[in-house]
Design brief:
Blueprint (H helix, E strand, L loop, with lengths): L1 H23 L3 H29 L1 H20 L4 H15 L3 H11 L3 H32 L4 H4 L1 H15 L13 H24 L4 H22 L14 H31 L4 H7 L1 H21 L2 H19 L7 H27 L7 H30 L7 H28 L2 H19 L1
Helix pairs in contact: 1-2, 1-6, 1-11, 1-12, 2-3, 2-4, 2-9, 2-16, 3-4, 3-5, 3-8, 5-16, 6-12, 6-13, 6-15, 9-10, 9-16, 11-15, 11-16, 11-17, 13-15, 14-15, 14-17, 15-16, 16-17
Length: 459
């Protein structure tokens, strides 16, 4: 239920963006911030939430996150202006940061058998597809029947039910030896991610060479370097750099970044394209995205079973190839895409993400100390949110660099093809990383790293 509301919140708001822009007089950058204020805050706080859950109790943090998410959804639904809506999205994101990585840690500590865990993660991952499938249709109905504000109401009953069900069915669990708080690491994560996102989104308005944008990029790089130095010298860091000695884990985090960047960019681009260029209604635009979401539902559990039997490599290779194919068939032809080609690209996106999703999660927690499952899952979840944040930022910037107002014409179609080219590039990177990091060498290195981690945990 937690991944359902978080996943649905992605697609349901995308369908409502054109109506929201019109009602609140928002620019393309303003629309980007309604999406990225949410994913950016989640990316910044996921690691803190995951380690806090390992320390004070996963069920307690999970329920707190559901309550804050409910409050944020209620505030979003009554926001009188774009600025207030963005602030309410921040509140919603604070709660959202306590949900998915904590839920993954709960699953990891409940299903101890690797095959059972892989199947459970596959089912859990399929909820993303169900949420993404339901989001556009429900969002389209609410936007046409009520207004964009209705898309936030649907979260409230689901979250309240999840709070009650968690109290009844989810056992409390903690790490036997939880990590200490790392305030410097947390501050540096925010300093690295926040200015980077701001610079990408605001660059078309300020200019790429403006002092403000260049300063943000420089500050982000400095924070990233300081973060690496700080984490390497802490006994109990926020981000345990030892995990990245495992090629499958390091590859999974990079794949999560690329795959979710493709998803974030795709949803923003095609919401604008379908409604502002093709003239679809919100409901019709939501239905048009269904091939993507439906195939995520179909291939998520299948990928989970495949990972349980054959490891993550086949799923990641298939997923990367599907993302690359979707991008290429949309980026190469000039002019308006034919309906068949458009829907084929949407289906390939869903196929690729369905295969990738369960494989990423399973790879991230495999070979890690079970008592630090929240930290390992939190790193990958952070990369997912960061990927989605950057996908929205980059594609929105491509669109804003070509057109001031989204409308039919060659300028938007140039941005459209460029954006699909970026999605194709993400697929190529996923395929290459899977090929390199999940083979025999990667498995040997992961086993050696797991042994070192176990020895270190005992010590």
């Amino acid at each position: 239920m937690s991944i359902f509301v978080v996943g649905m919140d992605i697609s349901i708001l995308n369908v409502a963006l054109p109506s929201l822009q019109h009602d609140l007089h928002a620019s393309v950058a303003g629309a980007q911030w309604t999406l990225d204020a949410y994913t950016l805050v989640i990316a910044c706080l996921l690691m803190l939430s995951a380690s806090t859950a390992d320390r004070i109790g996963r069920r307690r943090v999970f329920q707190t996150g559901l309550a804050i998410f409910t409050l944020g959804s209620a505030l979003c639904s009554v926001a009188p202006s774009l600025d207030v809506l963005i602030l309410a999205r921040v509140v919603q994101a604070i709660g959202g940061s306590m949900l998915n990585p904590v839920a993954m840690a709960i699953i990891t500590n409940t299903f101890l058998d690797p095959r059972e865990r892989a199947r459970a993660i596959g089912i859990w991952g399929a909820a993303v597809g169900i949420a993404v499938a339901a989001g556009p249709v429900i969002g389209g109905l609410l936007v046409e029947g009520i207004s964009w504000r209705g898309v936030f109401w649907v979260n409230i009953p689901v979250c309240l039910a999840a709070i009650a069900l968690t109290a009844r069915h989810v056992p409390e669990s903690k790490a036997p030896r939880p990590r200490r708080v790392d305030p410097a690491g947390q501050a540096l994560v925010i300093g690295a991610i926040g200015p980077l996102t701001y610079a990408i989104i605001e660059a078309p308005g300020h200019g790429w060479g403006s002092p403000e944008i260049v300063g943000c990029f420089a500050f982000s790089v400095l924070c990233l370097v300081a973060l690496a130095v700080n984490e390497l010298h802490r006994r109990e860091p926020l981000i345990d750099m030892r995990f990245f000695r495992s090629p499958p884990f390091a590859g999974a985090t990079a794949i999560a970044l690329c795959a979710l960047a493709a998803l974030g960019g795709y949803l923003l681009l095609n919401t604008l394209y379908l409604q502002d260029v093709r003239g679809f209604s919100p409901l019709r635009a939501g239905i048009a995205i269904l091939p993507m979401a439906a195939l995520m539902v179909v291939f998520g559990p299948l990928s989970g079973r495949t990972v349980g039997r054959h490891g993550p490599r086949p799923s990641l290779l298939i997923g990367g190839a599907a993302l690359a194919a979707a991008g290429l068939i949309s980026a190469i032809p000039r002019g308006e895409p034919a309906a068949v080609a458009m829907y084929a690209a949407y289906a390939l996106i869903g196929c690729g993400l369905g295969w990738i999703n369960a494989a990423i999660t399973n790879t991230a927690v495999a070979g890690m100390p079970r008592q630090q499952a929240g930290v390992a899952a939190g790193i990958t979840s952070t990369m997912r949110q960061l990927g989605q944040t950057l996908g929205v930022a980059v594609v929105g910037t491509v669109v804003a660099s070509h057109v001031a107002v989204v409308a039919p014409g060659p300028a938007f179609m140039a941005a459209y093809r460029t954006s699909w080219g970026i999605i194709a590039g993400c697929g190529v990177v996923v395929f290459a990383l899977a090929l390199v990091t999940t083979g025999a060498w990667g498995r040997r290195a992961a086993a050696a790293n797991a042994a070192r981690l176990d020895v270190a945990e005992i010590a």
